[in-house]
User: Fold these one by one.
Assistant:
Number 1:
Amino acid sequence: MPASQQEVLTSDQVRTSRTSTEHRPERLSSRRAEIDLALSAVADGRGAFVWTGEPGMGASTTLERVHEALHGASGPHPPLVLRVAQTVGPQRSGGAVRSLVSQVAQVTGCAVPDRLVRPLDVADPEYGYLPEVGAVALAEYLEEAVPDRTVVLLADDLHLVDEISRAVVVGLVAQRRAALVLLATAVPGGFDRPLPYPIEVRELAPLGPPEALHLLLVEERLAVAPHVAARLAQNLAGNAAAIAQTARLLSSEQLAGTAILPDPLPPVPAVRTLLGDRLDGLAPEERRALLVAAVAVVERTDVLLAASGLSIEEVLDGPLSGQLSLVSGRFAFTDPRVRSLVHGDARLADRTAAHLRLATVHTAVGEEDIATWHTALATLAGDPTLAPGLVSLAQRLLERGDVVWAHEVAREAASQAAAADRGEAYVVAGTAALQSGHVHDAADWLRRAARCEGGVSSARILGPLVTALTHVQGQVPDDVIAPFLALADNDDACTCCVDHEGRPRDAAGGCEIGDVVQGLTSAATLHAERGDGVAASQAFDAAKRLARRCTQGVGGLDVVRSWLANYGVGERGKGANLPGSCLSPEQEAYAQVSRAIALADEDALDVAGQALASAVANLAPVRNGGRWFDAPSGAVTPYVEAHLRLAQVLVHFWSGNITKARRELEEAAFRLPVGLPFAGTGVAVARRLDMAVHGSVGTVATALEETCSCPTSRPVRLGLLVDRAIGASFARHHTQAATLLELAAETDRRDCAHMLHLPGMDDVEAWVLAGRPDAAERALARRRVEAKDLSPANRVATLARAEIALARPEDSVALRDAVASAGRGIASPFEHGRTELCLGRALTRWGDLPAAHEHLLSAVELLTQSGAWAWARQAQGELAGVLEHLHALQVASARSDHAPVPTTTPGGGVPHAGAAPSGRPRLAARESDVSDDALDELRARWADELTERELDVALLVVQGGSNREAADQLYLSVRTVEVHLGRVFRKLGVRSRVELAVLAHRVGR
């Protein structure tokens, strides 16, 4: 790999992130699977892998990551790592082998035996042996020098190693005599002939969105949003070097997804090195055709041919066939990086000429709007007459959901328009940027509109400006809406009109009450999402008063009322959750989101999920491409779709399907700005799901947190405290966990509005586990008050766990009945599993170990079913402790000549009915024809071959017991019994229970 590209992948240049690096995931390579494969081969002591890929794909970096991992290896016999060196300057035959021999001698102190000196001197110009002889000699030397260590050969760019040394290394691997592993890189097609077995050539696939995110966030230490990383991976064909270089050219806002990326992306050295030669060989007319394709906004083949002057045969049969793909009347670049390079290397005059040719073609076919766009880009001095057409085109694109292109066109309109006519272009540019999630751009353009001379009133931009500023600043700009709140209190004002300063004016000036109402309702929902119920009520009440004074009518208030009710602000109006036919696609989407949340609050989770699935299918269909008019008419924008998708994730989470919720959140995060909706709830959900699955925060959640535009919002701030508490609890630091939960409760100043519920952790049980029942009692009192904001099922589960944690041993029977009854009403296996876990812990504390065993088994099953693997591991740990205690009691009972001791701790419980009076387990449920003497003899015979637990399982099976009976008898899960039984079969050389019984019969005779 060229040095310039390798520097890109290993550079120490970093960008400071807003979030402390201690919250980042562990620094691991994006090629983790390949590294694990290599390390596995080293552990086995044999294997050979050659990684190939185009320059910049990270093959050399993967090799270095393996070297780093091997360098930290410990143990009595760590691997010996040797570098297969390339000769600097003219190729010198055999130089790499001589270097290997020198490295071995230096590290081990073992000189080359006299008999091997000549066969190993392959660098001698008079070397008369075949390379195979050198390979045999090198194998013998390694066996003598490092007899008890695995030798690892690292060869970066193996194809550049001199031919005889490469032949010796390949022959050494093929012999498979010594414990040796070859790890190498090479360019595709770098060898004259295929490499022999057992060398495996592995082509490194292009980085996908998750790998690109890992590269930028973890390895390059850049704060980047998942959907930006996905865009870079797509447009740069997954080339690691190109992705890293391009990311360094972008601003922090562009990396965070709050500012629009340049289109095309700027060409970087990695792209020039890779594709420059391919373009240098093209004729001028062919480069001109590629430039036309690069600046075109519709991908129709007829437009390309007409503007370039080439025939279809010239494109299909000439050099352009490798750069452009023509299918079904449309064209596309075979490699998206070619478009970037062609556009970036073109002169301004060439781009202007290409736009003029396209303008002429579109004018000829009657597409005046597209022709206006190309004419504007070909106009260097600016033409104010083009501005109205561009604004109209931008509004069309915005209505279709093509928000990025709408922003680009509106921005061009602003540059063409005269100073007094730019206001409308600013408004469309800002609105389009907001709807694409680029909130910094939106705030910038809408501020320009507010300062624009003439034409744009403050009422017109109030809604989008309030939303954009809230996302950028992290709080609702009350100073912006204050004049309009006062306007609503002015009973003497005109019934339908205000001026651009927010003061009443003549109705003849045009009605803008609807714009003010939209702005106030936006402020109300944003306040509610951030927990300020008083401000939300104030803004919504003002909006309702103004709406009543508007003679033209204002729609959408029922949707806002329902939205606020989901946060506990006001009451849900009649029919407020039923979308209406008069709503716009945006209002329809928000109505479905609000309705789904309301249904979930009533435990109608299936209906909520169906409503959202229908809304997504109808309002957020799959987009086919990134050109003009590719999106279906009436599709919602990315900002609105992010609300829909996040609502789906929440419903899955509330349903207890952690696996599906996490998968859909990650899919959405790589396409949409999911960190914006619901005051950053997407960040909190991503973290909470990761904690449930892994017990730590993953790459996507970390990226969302680091690029969150509102890190101090209530969902993000309190969610972080709860996540830290969960992590502390998993580490059994119960006092720390309880303290963090207490801090979250004290920080959460409940001001009429409550947050959307995120299943987390119970503070009552945390205090009990920390040994603070007094604090647990206070937490229980608070929990009883706050539970009214939960759905009925969640309320029952939450209060049940709180009551269990503080209950007394004599209440155990009643509590078990109550939990069984509550479990039938809890649809979420996650909530049900946590309740079973809480009860299992309580029963363990009370000493009723058999009952604890039963409930902990249920907890493991339910939590595993939900996909909450980290919680399931906690339940398994509790279960293992109970089983260990039960087993110890059983062993003590077996060693006694008396009746078995009770299988409980002094806190209570009852003896287990199936315990045997001796060391041999006996079935309690049926008679067995195997005598006690026979069982004693079997135990003595098999004691040297089987572990104690395997003996117990084997003896119960010999008596005719089923796996379930053995599990009940030994306090194990059925799966554990199956594992033990499989080991018994292997160790005793039998294949079935019948053969085991026959073997036992023979032994007993």
Number 2:
Amino acid sequence: MTGNDTLRLALHGAVLADLDGSKPKNLARALVYQAEDMDPDAGAFASEGDFQSALRDARATDQLVELWRRQLAKWDYAERPAWGDTVARTDERRSEIYRLLKLEDATCKLLDELIPVPKTAGPLVISETFKPWYTPESQRSRPHYWPAYRKLLADKGWPPHAIASLDIATDQVVERLADPTDEEVYQSKGLVVGYVQSGKTANFTGVVAKAVDAGYRLVIVLGGTLNMLRAQTQRRLDMELVGRENIMRGADEMESDYADDPAWKAGKFITFGGMPSALGAFDIVRMTTRKNDYKSLLQGITALEFEKREPALPLYDRENLHRSSASLMVVKKNKTVLAKLVKDLGKIRTPLSEIPVLIIDDESDEASVNTSKPDAAQRSAINEQISKLLKMLPRAQYVGYTATPFANVFVDPSDTEDIFPKDFIISLPRPDGYMGARDFHDLDSALEAGELTFANSNEKAHVRDIVDDADDDTCMQQAMDMFVLSAAMKLYREDLGGLGDGFFQHHTMLIHESVRTHVHRSLHERVLGLWHESGYTGPQGHARLRHLFDTDVSLVSAVRSDGHAVPASYDELLPYVGPAVVRIGGDEQPIIVVNGDQDLETGEADFDKRAIWKILIGGQKLARGFTVEGLTVSFFRRRAGNASTLMQMGRWFGFRKGYRDLVRLYLGRKETIGGSEFDLYDGFQAICRDEEAFRSELERYSEMVDGRPQITPDQIPPLVSQHAPWLKPTSPNKMYNARLELVRSAGRWEEPTAYPQKGLENNTALWLPVLESLGEVPATYAYHFPQEGTTHRFPALTGTVPAEAMLSVFQQLRWETAEPFDPHLRYLEEITRATPGKIDDWLVLAPQHLASDSKTLRLGASGRSYSWFSRDRRKDRHPLFGAISDRKHRGVAHRIAGALPNSGDAATEKLVGERRGALVLYPVLERHHRASIDSEGRIGADKVVIAFAFVAPATAQSANGRVVQFTTVSSAASAIIDRAEIDKG
């Protein structure tokens, strides 16, 4: 960098530092103003013309560009800024920024090329209205820990847009807490929903930093149910928030509980340059350490006391609050530990009603939720202690964090002493670079099985089937071979791919088959024997590795390496295989069994203290919260009974920088448990759909209407879906009921499933006139999906039915239980009777099988033939059906209703109408009725289920934008699980 570059950088740094925290202002004027106080030569760079010239010659990584990237990100991400009314992260927002900066078009164009507008999604918020207090103006004079944390993240390499996103997300949490200086007592309770292993800890670290800066003086972090999880959280907070000075408090470095921690020795713990209290801020006092959970205080109860500079004023008064130290404790969710804390708090002299407290509950759906029956006299153990804390600390704010929120949203909202997130639910956006459930599945892909490749199919690229039995180690051997190959690939990329020595500090494989300790021990012997017999240094081992490289690794990495080095052949990789084997098993211990806290306490599986290239065998200890670093190959055969538990076992989710293409998941496809057979891949796919559906619903309803929320947190439970018959969202004793009253589903595929078991002839009679009104000769319709490069095509009988006539059919239909369809019926009544009308007619499609398919039946007096479909009711939710429709019919229906663009098919385009809905009919025969078709193809009307799906016109929106209405909480059978099932538990 030249002297001119340095001076220019200093000038722009001074300008942007002055603009930080304020609105964009005239850049040219700001440059001249700042140059007056700098080196006389700075004036030569105090013009927009010079800025343009520098940008023309700049690269995206230049320091000047990075400086502007950071500031533009803050303005791009700002939610509801006082200086503008444009939507965050849009071209309109960026244009508004440029306008306020008074930049020329040429400068704007150069900045856009070097710093594109971020279009990433922001957090989704479902919230009660709240009293605004946390504003930039109110916090400008006091920040200490948040700016330090933000700087730490930047130094760690976080991109500016990620830091800006975290800033916004944490603001949205903190602003919904009570003002810690307010005389009025209010206890806010909220829930933050992230993804499994996606950075939730970074979010709550930011929340804690901002909260203590604002005045919260006691922070209690509930850090999981295991010592290893609590210690992991303690270390993270100590390293990135508390800092060296607060840890040491004047003691010698070697007396620290981190004296043997490589990160401590390497200077990676945050430092402030002195005790914060000596720098005009305040100290954080640790009540727990990495090795020690909360204990009845040896140094006396005074350690929990809070100093009041003005004894006559309450602690929450600004005169006291901002001169007092903050106390932090990371506590395990253990009845005994929490009971000690409750007891000690009850003894301190400081009135508990004066202490602003923040409770962060990590993995809040685990142990924290009350699992006692609703009429039980006593709460479950952990929930009782949390309830006591909330009751005795009236200024306590509760924020739960989880990736599996279903248990939390099913908590009874009327129980004021429980942890229901009554004030807000915030769903964090999926972070850049994250590899989650969707990355292992092909959700909503329009491609047929024969069209899938390593490039367009996540399943084909990353998932491998386990189909052998417990005595056959073929799949286990292949998984182990993949672990060795991927280790060699990492060493290759460090050496020849430019990543550098030590880039991949950890490299692990996880084997998860059981939670039982004795199973882990025997599995250890089995896997160890397999390792020793693998012959990785001999011809037999190399032959297997070569075959796996040629048929798997090279093909996947060729299309998914994201620019990272890929060997042209196994021979090119061969020099790295031996060193990889040595890294894993050179100490004769290639395997670590993790089934108890002692495994971490001895350092065997402590990722913080050493590099680990090992195979890990574990169960519950590795199933929730604990991050398995460097995880590349997973071998998973364990089934869980609910979606939350199974999702948390997905340790293969996370950030995989530099080796995303090497990740492999070996999953049991035919796991037999209790006499039933389960496909674990289908289970995870169902969970992924549950999660996507939940977030999609939150997104729909997070939009404000007339300045008020459409729904509040107590109306969330009906938005939870269940896609797998055997996999409920969470355990039955954590589920609660509510009822959805109306759903406006313009342009969305809706598919009822609660068809009656008896009296089917009523529904058949209602549908027969509709079927007989359709054309007699099927035509072929299609929808082309350009992104997938595929077309869905099918033959169907078609016809149109006026909206009023179709509404009459809907109203007379009988159901096994009407509650699931009632919210849709109310919407259909609304759009049909609206003035002016929102729907004119329905285009009815009756899909027909190809001529070679003999599945036809005759219905009605006319004896017309229609194709029928084989479907059965779900065993676990009898008498409801599962999905009835065929995915290939949906594109055409969506297009007819105006929910998709041009189909690329002339026949389909002729069916499209302005206020037209699409209805797809499926005559269904259940297994026990299929033999009832006589020789002429006839069957009784009481044996046919006329199922249907519909897409209302995409234009049939509510005038006020509101898309749902709810009733109060109830015990209706329409909920996912009814009260009777809970009581059975």
Number 3:
Amino acid sequence: MISGGISHPGLLSRLQAPARSVWAKHDRDADGWLPLWRHMEDSAAVAGLLWDEWLPVGVRKLISEVLPGGEADGRRLVVWLAGVHDIGKATPAFACQVDQLADVMRGTGLEMRSRQAMGPDRRLAPHGLAGQILLAEWLEERHGWTAKQCGQFAVAVGGHHGVPPENGQIKALYDHEELLRTPGRSNGVWRQTQTELLDACAEHFGVRDTISSWKVVKLPQTAQVLLSAVVIVSDWIASNPDLFPYFPEGAARTGEERLAAAWRGLDLPAPWRADDPVGDAQELFGSRFGLPAGAKVRPVQEAAVELARAMEVPGLMVVEAPMGEGKTEAALAVAEIFAARSGAGGVFFALPTMATGNAMFPRLLEWLERLPGGGSRRSVHLAHAKASLNEEFAGLLARGGRVAAVDVDAVVPAPRPGGDGRVASGELVAHSWLRGRKKAMLASFVAGTVDQLLFAGLKSRHLALRHLAVAGKVVVIDEAHAYDTYMSLYLDRVLAWLGAYRVPVIVLSATLPAARRREMVEAYAGVTGAGTENVGADGEYPLLTAVAPGGVPVVRCPEASARAVDVRVERLPDGLDVLADRLEAELTDGGCALVVRNTVGRVLEAAQVLRDRFGEDAVTVAHSCFVDVDRAAKDSDLLRRFGPPGRATGRPSGRHVVVASQVAEQSLDVDFDLLVSDLCPVDLLLQRMGRLHRHRRGEKQEERPARLRTATCLLTGVDWQSDVPVPVRGSVTVYGKYALLRSAAVLDPHLDGGPARPVRLPSDISPLVQSAYREAPVGPPSWAESFEEARVRFDRFRADQAERAAVFRLGDVGRPGRALFGWVAAGVGDTDDTRTGRAQVRDSQESLEVVVVQRRSDGSLTTLPWLARDRKGRQRGGLVLPQDQVPTPFAARTAASCGLRLPIQFSYAETLDRAIAELEQLYVLAWQGKDSPWLSDQLILALDEDCQTQLAGFSLHYSHADGLEVTRG
């Protein structure tokens, strides 16, 4: 029998009539209700099962390690706190809200004023805060605790609605005791009822004889957060009437029957319990990643596995290696080792963008399917704002089912095969309860944007849930070099908390500035000074750096396995005709060139000129201003045509030019014969160079055109004729002048046959990056004045970023025993992966996102006409979107897949407000509400039949080939 470990008899038998009459839940529509004692038992029982069957081993250890009775005490504490979390409902301030239930309580002697009579003062006593105070009073009066000792435990009750109380709120309620107990003759009845409920809980939940031993405990703040989070999850589950029916319907079942039916209906997948993989790195990679016959594990991968096994305890590992070294596979292999040794119950893979998150998700699923324990169910999630539009994830969602109680003796339908060959209740499950912006990260395996991780450092409501989500996982942070100062400040604070939770973390990067590497190590380890000096030194490359929480870093320097590539770097004057002439000369015998521009405007300008020169079919455009479905199709097309030999099937036989923005820098395994790039920070330029001669095409590249067998990067976007290079204005807007000048300075010796020519990859990667980012002067003396002006502006900008980041950034981990009061004070309230939420952890202006549809001449709305059929062969282009009723789910989802983030012109306050006002004129009432989840609350941008429109004084034109083009109206 499932009992959640609760002793018997039940709470009810220990209570007198007044305590039995206290209510906790009420359904105004059905007039159902739930007594407080019943909800206390339900919540505690759920907490016991969460502890036994859902919480990862590592989380249980963190909660238990300072308790005298170890894990047994940890379980008792979780059950007890979940059981008493709603004791604040046994107060006049709460009970007065439903007249008929309040009247029943009055009939037992619990007098109270009406809700209207209490007036606005009632808001001083939210039931979580009231419960915290009542629990603290009980601990002081019945067990002799001090106020300080009480706070660290009682805060889990006070914060169970997502925000731990602040000291001022606590004092204000103490000054209004009438909200806790009605004055006069009824005061004693209220006090007796509250005490009786807490006494009964202590007895029933098995802590009566244990509480005295907890008096001397100093709970770490990490444990307080996790306890708060488990109480929240227990409350949410026990408050779901589909799982725990209200009275009178649910009154006939015993507590054990309620719990058994609810738990069976909830059917949460258990956490991952990894076994330490046996065998050497070659065997591990062969079994997990299906290495082709004869393929050898790379030195970086082998060194990462060896270092993970050599660490006394799992901690932080920073992997810096060139593009193409298999860092992703190395991270997953290390994650498995770390999880087995730390008790982590899953993995979160954090990536810089939604596109990289989408690309990682199927790779994560493939890895999961190869892990041992094939019969087990594993919860998975894709965590970003548009995850439900990802077809791989949507397939899992469609089979997730609905959560509802299931009788113990009920027949459970057999699972149906999924559309992609997976069984619906098989290994990988997008569980229906583990959805939504506050619960999704609680799934065991998650791929998503780094914002989801950075939110753990943002003072916001229900932050404890985000901490529970990451505390039970191994965290992988990819492309760490892509994060600016603002994001890095949040990341470092998150790393400090992850270190305190002893969460294993793996950071991946092509290379990091030495100072940035040291900052990350110090943040995680919680130590500074001499012990981390070797981390900040310019060293070998590739580089592995590892440190345990509170430990001393160790460094490993494996060889790079990738062949060396010498890249000839030349200045190219900035001019469209100059670009076209040079490409025409270089591509005389054919070949594929990549032109990377720093702004979408420069992409489109170049593409137009190059099409005029080479023809429409010889030029492809890729940038961020495509609707989501077109952007995904672009990525797939680039991989199909320019991917690795043997996998790419459509590489052009003649000359072809891809003109792209920064989307070409990240996570696309594409290979070009020639690179033309705007000047950018040197680490990003090296990323772009990673797309040049990325793969071997014949002996000595003989399968490439003769002129292009030497890797060449033409550097443009700069006035090279000036005494000091002058980057184009768009590049300065994006990157800042100081970073661009330092990049030009460190590249100067390599340009046009300079003394250090060429750039050799990978050996020059680290020296170039370290030189560009250290404080020492670089470049010719004649550049000094321009450098100083740019540096002053850069320092001012960075200081401003730090000041703004500090406003809502979570504080440091407090000392053990210090209660979490005010933990998220002056925070942002609720936050999630919306444009507003992302703007809080990225230093970016609020962007405007729209759903793009087409308006026909007759006024009807349709999906965009060129959309290809889906995987099932269903037509998506030109689907009618009726305005007098909800569109079909398929049509609505297709429309939603055409989401578009408008460019920076629409992010300035006045333009943003005007654009929103104009977009809101197309408000389709039938598309709003829960019956239209895909389109409800979306801003709709309707293009005419020529795919044009006007918005906020700008002319917009969209094409399948070029995406969105914006000009002044």
